[in-house]
Specification:
Blueprint lengths: L1 E8 L4 E8 L8 E4 L3 E6 L4 H12 L4 H11 L7 E6 L4 E5 L7 E5 L2 E6 L5 H12 L4 H14 L9 E7 L9 E7 L5 H27 L2 H14 L9 H13 L3 H14 L9 H6 L1
Helix pairs in contact: 1-2, 3-4, 4-5, 5-6, 5-7, 7-8
Length: 285
């Protein structure tokens, strides 16, 4: 009732997984540790297998040896499906003999697996997408998951999905690069794609704002215009503070008319913010 992919990006040192299912909060059945590995346990998933995976990695076991450890620890292992990848790029997928419509494929730095699927085309589509796509590991995992969903995915329907990527940043509290988790939705995978794109847009807006703030002279005018162009179709609360920043930038270069125009939009998005503006600005809005 689930399809997933675990993968590592050796260049950026990212590792993570993507998973979707007709079951509530399928994302709980995956885990990734920076510079260690990533694993998903599905088809009557067993959390104990996730713990065993990381314990045995620390003991320098190969993935084949870890599967044997699974078999010793779990009498129902033939009902399980597990996908694994190590930070070094070793991959393995295991599908028990009692798993219904279970399919799996492994490749360079990834393992892809699914069960109770409409057919093998789900996994084939995921693999093709992952191998051909570009971008961050988060984006490639999402695209792979969406390809599987578009190919029919779980034969029982859609409920939840998750994309999770981690990286060693020198502090275990900030290892998470991406963790978008949709527990119940009519289009859970597509919703994760929307959130990934939204975050990308917000980061781009922040970068443009910083560039416009730091630039001088003619370059500042051009940078302000770039920010204005990017914000032209983003008239909602998510970008509220950026519209205020743009208005302030216009004021600094002496373009009061454009500043007032931007403040009007700022107040239209959030009327309560009118009270925090300078009285001179309020009179012109």
């Amino acid at each position: 009732m689930t399809f997933s992919i675990v993968a590592v990006d050796p260049e950026k040192k990212d590792i993570g997984f993507a998973i979707a299912s007709c079951f509530w909060d399928s994302g709980q059945m995956g885990f990734a540790k920076a510079e260690k590995g990533a694993v998903v346990s599905q088809a009557q998933g067993n959390w104990d297998l996730i713990n065993i995976f990381f314990e045995k990695l620390d003991e320098n076991m190969t993935l084949e040896e870890i599967v044997e450890a699974f078999k010793r620890a779990d009498e129902s292992i033939e009902n399980r499906q597990v996908g694994m990848v190590t930070f070094s790029g070793e991959t393995l997928a295991f599908t028990g003999g009692k798993v219904f419509n279970g399919f799996q494929r492994i490749g360079s730095n990834y393992a892809c697996q699914g069960n109770i699927l409409v057919g093998p085309e789900v996994i084939d589509s995921m693999v093709e997408s992952f191998e051909k796509s570009e971008g961050t590991l988060s984006e490639r995992l999402y695209k792979s998951l969406q390809a599987g969903d578009d190919a029919g995915g779980d034969m029982r329907g859609k409920i939840s999905a998750r994309v999770c990527v981690v990286r060693n940043r020198g502090n275990p509290l900030i290892e998470t690069v991406t963790d978008f988790r949709v527990e119940e939705h009519t289009e859970p995978v597509r919703e994760i794609g929307r959130l990934i794109q939204l975050r990308k847009n917000l980061l781009k807006t922040w970068e443009l704002t910083q560039s416009a703030t730091k630039a001088e002279g003619v370059e500042k005018v051009a940078a302000i215009q770039s920010l204005e162009d990017f914000l032209s179709d983003k008239n909602d609360r998510l970008y509220l503070d950026f519209h205020e920043s743009l208005a302030e930038l216009h004021l600094k270069v002496g373009n009061r008319d454009k500043a007032i125009e931007r403040y009007k939009l700022y107040v239209k998005i959030s009327p309560n913010m009118l009270s925090i503006l300078d009285e001179e600005i309020r009179r012109d809005i």
